[in-house]
């Protein structure tokens, strides 16, 4: 267990500390994006107030924490914090955590995705297709190329799914601007730039990681059934994620 890091702790204070710590750490393991920062601040405050350097160190060692926070993303950290509190209770004093608990394993960071299409229906269908993969988190939407470039600059997405035929500024125009300063990767999802067409070749020349055709134009309620798998495969490759067969 290692040499104690503190003098023996007051048994009454320890008895009061442990249930609250256990409850907060348990909640952290399943917390959503809204609750996670509050719970982390509460745990840091408790560890500091009781001068438990081992727990403060574990929280510090886990940073930077994965964002956006998905439910269960911090389950490993939560379990390690609870286990360390149990060790402290058993020793009656602060003790060093095991070496493998100093930096608890974290869930992989989600790929942040921007959806760009002038059809609200298509954006919804793309969002639903991506929702099948916990590796992706949709962080924004845009309905034309100008708005897409603004969202890219503000959100810094890891991946953008981009339509070609849009008002104000089309996808090719947006790609030209993105190729100079834009963040992340781009996958074109368009009925106008199907693989093998001149538009598809131009999109690839400008840096698009892949081009996937829409199954039946801008209004495609059959998207998930007919092209959902192709979109997910292209998105995973563009984001540097393993294919579904290699995952896990």
From TrEMBL:
The keyword Calcium does not apply. It holds the Pfam family Response_reg. The modification 4-aspartylphosphate is found at residue 163. Gene3D superfamilies: 3.40.50.2300. Transmembrane segments: none annotated. Keywords: Phosphoprotein. This is Response regulatory domain-containing protein. It comes from Teichococcus rhizosphaerae.
């Amino acid at each position: 267990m290692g040499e104690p890091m503190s003098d023996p702790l007051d048994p009454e204070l320890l008895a009061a500390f442990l249930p609250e710590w256990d409850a907060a750490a348990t909640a952290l393991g399943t917390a959503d994006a809204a609750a996670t920062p509050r719970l982390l601040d509460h745990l840091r405050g408790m560890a500091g107030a009781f001068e438990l350097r081992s727990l403060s160190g574990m929280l510090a060692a886990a940073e930077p924490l994965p964002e956006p926070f998905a439910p269960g993303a911090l389950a490993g950290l939560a379990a390690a914090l609870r286990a360390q509190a149990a060790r402290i209770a058993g020793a009656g004093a602060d003790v060093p955590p095991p070496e493998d608990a100093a930096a608890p394993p974290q869930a992989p960071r989600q790929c942040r995705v921007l959806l760009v299409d002038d059809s609200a229906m298509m954006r919804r269908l793309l969002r639903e297709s991506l929702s099948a993969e916990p590796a992706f988190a949709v962080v924004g939407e845009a309905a034309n190329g100008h708005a897409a470039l603004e969202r890219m600059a503000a959100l810094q997405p890891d991946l953008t799914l981009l339509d070609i035929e849009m008002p104000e500024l089309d996808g090719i125009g947006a790609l030209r601007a993105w190729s100079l300063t834009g963040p992340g990767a781009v996958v074109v999802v368009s009925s106008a730039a199907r693989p093998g067409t001149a538009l598809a070749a131009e999109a690839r020349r400008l840096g698009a990681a892949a081009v996937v055709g829409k199954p039946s134009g801008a209004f495609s309620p059959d998207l998930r059934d007919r092209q959902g798998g192709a979109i997910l495969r292209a998105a995973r490759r563009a984001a540097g994620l393993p294919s579904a067969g290699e995952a896990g």
